[in-house]
Amino acid sequence: MTESQFLQHLADLGADPARWPPELRADAERALAASPALREAVREAEAFDRLLGGPVPAVDEARVARLLSAVGAAARSVPQDTLMMLLLGRMPRRTAASLCVALLALGWLAGSLATPGGTTPTATRDVALLSDDVPTLFDGDAR
Amino acid sequence: MNDRPDETGSDDSLMARVAGGDAGAFERLAARHMRRAVALAQRMTGNPSDADEIAQEAFLRVWQHAARWDGARAAFTTWLYRIVVNLAIDRGRRPAWAPLEDAGELADAAPDAVARIAERQTADLVNRALDGLPDRQRAAVVLFHQEGLSLRQAAEILGLSETAFASLLARARGALKTALAAGRVS
Predict the structure, then answer these.
(1) Cα B155 to Cα B159: distance, rounded to the nearest angstrom
(2) Predicted complex: ipTM over 0.85
């Protein structure tokens, strides 16, 4: 590894060669051992890395306890995934979409075969609509 | 990021029970990882209240979708961190970092107080520079430099190859160097 290559990795990946990709580490350590200039560059890079590290956010016990309580309560009121969701969730999206379309087509086909002509007889619908027993809800939804 | 086989069970075994609807196992898992999840969310957003919401939502998703987790593909912590990072990114940008002026005046002018002012100014500048990065670059810096994860772990969390993650990190570091140099931080 040349000095310029080392400096490029230093700029890209930070001051600790032990955290670089494994294939670079041995060469980096050799280059570092051989060059005082690179060791000085590493010291400067360490200062930059310390800036990026920043302070650890304060998360006190009371805050954690409050969050755990909230999460526990929420979990008790939220159902887990259903079997159908799990099956679809594990499938690639195209496969899941194809399965849904196939199920819809199958349902439509079954309905068509059960009622020749493919539609609800008009006479039946008329009888229902003309009945005096059809209540109307406040929002206009008839049943 | 390691699985923790102790008296209450490893992450893997707890997750298997959570997938079966065991609320007690879920509470133990949450107790084990909540602090780091909140800290990560706070580092991503710079805002404690957003961090709290993100951490809660992340664990709720763990509960809801526990059966989707596949221990052969990723460690539980990798999965959890991925959820937290994605939620933080989805939340979008808000004016998260409290301006230095809001921090109040220091009570004395002793040398250590002056040093603390300088430290706060530097931290503020770094936070602003981080906040100016694209989301995934900011996530790369948080995961690698602040959380101390390896290249491989951080890459897994962002769904990238190690090479792609190294490239993302290099771009982030370059942008931060430029921003901090413009702000005259050394």
Answers:
(1) 6
(2) no
